[in-house]
């Protein structure tokens, strides 16, 4: 598989087979991802990989912490979306809503079925069935630049996973449990969990994995100058 194919094939996988991944295989992937670029080569990322009982403990932590409402509003010092998203160019919120509607259409869970949508969303906190969870940790004192570099690291992991026939779903929903996760992983005060990621072999028969999210046309995002 070449890079273009990996980029085009990568989707957010939201249903996985239970097939385990070995520590050696996950370690090799993460070793390869260390080649991700970062400003000044600071490499501001750390990652905690969980499988087996360690993964199950996180599922239990989420179940007890979210007690029935996986979408409960949690005040975050670093919100998942900017609080004034709705006041920005409306296109951002439109895109966010659009992908959600596409997903729930595929799953056949209408907006009126709030319980059904919540039940589906709760799968996030079971890693969508994936055998491995990754948790991305950053020093709280890092700035916006280093957060962007963390994103490069995560995307590199996602593309390397694709090459292996694996799938990923980045999961910032875990930020709702940031405080609990920080404690669970016994992080020092200066570190925090930014985001989670499910990793495993995709269940290609599951309809949710047929979602191929749209992208804006190029002229909305690119300016060519001097060509
Ligand atoms: C940093 C980050 C966090 C995300 N968090 C979640 C999440 O918590 N749950 C989820 O189902 N998808 C999550 N996504 C997936 C996005 O919804 C998805 O990338 C977007 O809709 C585009 O779809 P695609 O990844 O299939 O191309 C996240 C993506 C990114 C980059």
Quick gist of this model?
The chain is α+β, with helices and mostly antiparallel strands and 227 residues long. The protein has a domain at 3-68 and 127-180 and 189-205: 3-Layer(aba) Sandwich (NADH Oxidase), CATH 3.40.109.
Account of the protein in words:
There is one protein chain. With 227 residues, the chain is an alpha+beta fold. It has a domain of 137 residues: 3-Layer(aba) Sandwich (NADH Oxidase), CATH 3.40.109. 39% of the residues lie in helices and 13% in strands. It has eight helices and four strands; from the N terminus they run ααβαααβαβαβα. A four-stranded antiparallel beta sheet has the order 1-2-4-3, sandwiched between helices. Helix 1 crosses helix 6. The longest helix is centred in the last third of the chain and has 20 residues. The radius of gyration is 18 Å and the shape is globular. The chain starts with a helix and ends in a 6-residue tail after the last helix. The model has no long low-confidence stretch (mean pLDDT 95). The site of flavin mononucleotide has 12 residues, from strand 3.
Give the secondary structure arrangement, pairings included.
Elements: H1 3-9, H2 23-33, E1 46-51, H3 52-66, H4 91-107, H5 114-121, E2 132-139, H6 144-163, E3 167-171, H7 178-184, E4 191-200, H8 218-221
Helix pairs in contact: 1-6, 2-6
The structure holds flavin mononucleotide.
Residues 11-12, 14, 99, 124, 169-173, 195, 213 line the site of flavin mononucleotide.
């Amino acid at each position: 598989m070449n890079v273009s194919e990996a980029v085009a094939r990568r989707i957010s996988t939201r249903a996985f087979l239970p097939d385990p991944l070995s520590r050696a295989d996950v370690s090799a992937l993460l070793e390869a991802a260390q080649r991700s670029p970062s400003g000044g080569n600071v490499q501001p990322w750390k990652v905690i990989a969980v499988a087996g009982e360690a993964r199950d403990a996180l599922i239990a932590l989420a179940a007890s912490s979210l007690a029935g409402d996986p979408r409960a509003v949690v005040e975050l010092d670093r919100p998942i979306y900017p609080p004034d998203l709705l006041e920005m160019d409306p296109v951002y919120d439109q895109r966010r809503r659009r992908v959600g509607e596409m997903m729930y259409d595929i799953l056949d869970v209408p907006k009126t079925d709030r319980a059904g949508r919540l039940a589906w969303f709760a799968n996030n906190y079971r890693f969508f069935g994936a055998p491995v969870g990754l948790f991305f940790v950053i020093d709280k004192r890092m700035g916006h630049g280093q957060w962007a570099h963390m994103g490069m690291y995560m995307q590199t992991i996602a593309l390397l996973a694709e090459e292996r026939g694996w799938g990923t779903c980045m999961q910032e929903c875990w930020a709702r449990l940031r405080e609990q996760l920080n404690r669970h992983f016994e992080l020092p005060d200066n570190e925090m969990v930014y985001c989670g990621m499910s990793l495993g072999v995709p269940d290609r028969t599951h309809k949710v994995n047929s979602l191929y999210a749209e992208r804006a046309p190029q002229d909305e995002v690119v300016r060519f100058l001097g060509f």
